[in-house]
Amino acid sequence: MSTAARGPHAPRAGDAQPAAVAQADRGHSPAADASASPQALASDAPARAFVTVAWNGRQDRIEYQHIAPHRTAAPLLVFLHEGLGSITMWKDFPQALCDAAGCRGLVFSRWGYGDSSPRGAHERWPVEFMHQQAHDFLPAFFAALDIDTARDQPWLYGHSDGASIALLHAGACPSRVAGVVAAAPHIFVEDVTIRSIQQARDGYVTTSLRSKLARYHQDPDSAFWGWNDIWLDPAFRRWNIQDVLRDVQCPVLAVQGLDDEYGTMAQIDGIAAHAPRCEQLRLADCGHSPHRDQPAALIESVTDFLHRHGGAKTPTPA
After folding, report:
1. Cα(11)–Cα(292) distance, integer angstroms
2. Which residue range forms the structural domain that includes residue 147?
3. Which of 69, 134, 214, 300 is the most buried (most CB within 10 A)?
4. In this structure, are residues 294 and 97 in contact, taking their beta carbons and an 8 Å threshold?
5. Which residues are CB-neighbours of 34 under 8 A, at least 6 positions away?
């Protein structure tokens, strides 16, 4: 499947501001514009909680949030945020998608983001940081929350770095993932990505970008420099996960905006070339954050994808 949808939020030419900050600057919730249910707009949003996750010799305090846990028989949809994201950066998109698809949801902030344990001031991420998140952290996180992924296979919705982590986890644990939605994924490093990340670095140093990120992270330096330093490390230019995509046996919906300032269609074309059960969604008037730029089209397509592969139910009243 390959479709394109149009909408009112086309990115401006030359705007390489991090997608997460562009979302923050809107000052309103994108999913609510076209597709959020009344429940998603309610002031009593699901409460955030914390769990200690032991992994890689670490003990990290991770913030998380359940969505519609009363839908006990519904599929579980886990949201993996982008390189500068967090629980709050998603705004109400997870709630809106879960309501549309009739799913339960799980949203969390990775180590170094949001209100989760921050990265140490002199701690640098390794080139394989996304592999570590996929192979080591996610299983430990699910175990800490008593989620048996062999019995209750989650669907993974990943954005940007989160999409890459979702694909890596699905490849490593094929019997423990029901399906993947990979929005604006990275499977190798492109020149356009590096240029945009360099511009983000300059903006962080010279503009109000740091104060904007501070609305969403207790330690914005932890979030920003952890992400920026590793992506601009010369050793990271060789990072490539195409060889593991053949191990992703579950259905995959690969989503890319035609105006993505951080990647080209080569990313989702590469997934389709290697993952055996991949469908594509190409969105016009859409940059690096499809859930911000095209929420209605995205929710409709993801719900259809989940429904066709057994991962969506008829929504029930909240």
Report:
1. 11
2. 19-308
3. 134
4. no
5. 295, 296
| pLDDT tens per residue, range 279-304 | 999 999 999 999 999 999 999 999 99
Owner of token pair 């890319």: 256
Domain count across the chain:
1
| pLDDT range class, residue 45, cuts 50, 70, 90 | low
b (16+ CB within 10 A) / e for 150-188 = eeebbbbbbbbbbbbbbbbbbbbbeebbbbbbbbbbbbb
Classify residue 238: in a domain, yes or no: yes
Position 9 in a domain: no
CATH number of the domain within which 206 lies = 3.40.50.1820
* pTM, entire model: 0.88
| Residue that is written with structure tokens 């886990």 in the block | 78
Which residues on adjacent β-strands are paired with residue 76? 104
Q: How far apart are CA 48 and CA 223, in angstroms?
A: 19
How far apart CA 112 and CA 85 sit, in angstroms, is 10
For residue 164, give the H/E element and its range: helix 161-172
By CB neighbour count within 10 A (0-12 exposed, 13-18 middle, 19+ buried), where does 14 fall?
exposed
Q: How far apart are CA 99 and CA 180, in angstroms?
A: 18
For 256, phi and psi rounded to 5 degrees?
-145, 135
Nearest CA among 41, 18, 15, 44 for reference residue 30: 41
> Minimal CA–CA distance to 173: which of 147, 207, 192, 206?
147
- Residue reference for tokens 């080569």: 266
pLDDT (tens digit, 9 = 90+) per residue, 11-34?
Answer: 333 344 555 555 545 433 322 332
Given a contact cutoff of 8 angstroms between Cβ atoms, the answer to whether 116 and 61 are in contact is yes
Helix (H) or strand (E) holding 103: none
Nearest CA to 193 out of 240, 256, 127, 262 is that of 262
According to DSSP, the residues that pair with 64 across neighbouring strands are: 49, 108
